[in-house]
Amino acid sequence: MEDSDDEIKKLYAEAIISYYEHPHNKRKLESADAEFKESNPVCGDVLTVYIKVKDKKIEDISFEGQGCAISIGSASIFTDFAKGKDIELIRKFSVKELIDLIKIDPGPVRLNCATLILRATQKALSKYKG
Questions:
Q1: Please, are residues 114 and 71 in contact by the beta-carbon 8 Å criterion?
Q2: Which of 57, 104, 106, 108 could be disulfide-bonded to 114 (CB atoms 3.0-4.6 Å)?
Q3: How far apart are CA 124 and CA 34, in angstroms?
Q4: Where are the alpha helices (DSSP H) in the chain?
């Protein structure tokens, strides 16, 4: 059983690398309704998230910036997930839910990398007055 668990963990780690090498939604979203730049000074990661809202749902979301495989991979996965979701769901989305979504345990040292996109998105939505 342990071999199977190790294989699954390896597959999810490979998925993060793939998202890092071929990120989804990595672009500046023109005419965004909300945006926020967030950084992780320990690692040097910097992301700016852009959000377009329609009918209280995230119509489109994208990001720009640079970072490690975990931060870019998490940003790709999370932005794919967030499209079409109610903004209140995303405002309340927890770190645990994000870790469940990306399917890897980044550990305490890399947790800030994995959650950078979540922090940026929630701060952008807290500024949104729509």
A1: yes
A2: 106
A3: 5
A4: 2-21, 69-82, 87-91, 95-102, 107-114, 116-127
Look at the chain and report how many structural domains it folds into: 1
Question: Whole-angstrom Cα distance, residue 114 to residue 68?
Answer: 9
* Of residues 25, 22, 15, the one with CA closest to residue 103: 15
Which residue is associated with the tokens 């790709």? 76
CA 38, 71, 89, 58 torsion-angle sign: positive
* CATH number of the domain that residue 34 is part of: 3.90.1010.10
Structure tokens at 13: 């780690």
Judge contact between 62 and 28, C-beta under 8 A: yes
What value does the mean pLDDT take over residues 1-5?
A: 60
Domain that holds residue 93: 2-127
pTM of the shown model: 0.91
Q: Is the pLDDT of residue 1 over 60?
A: no
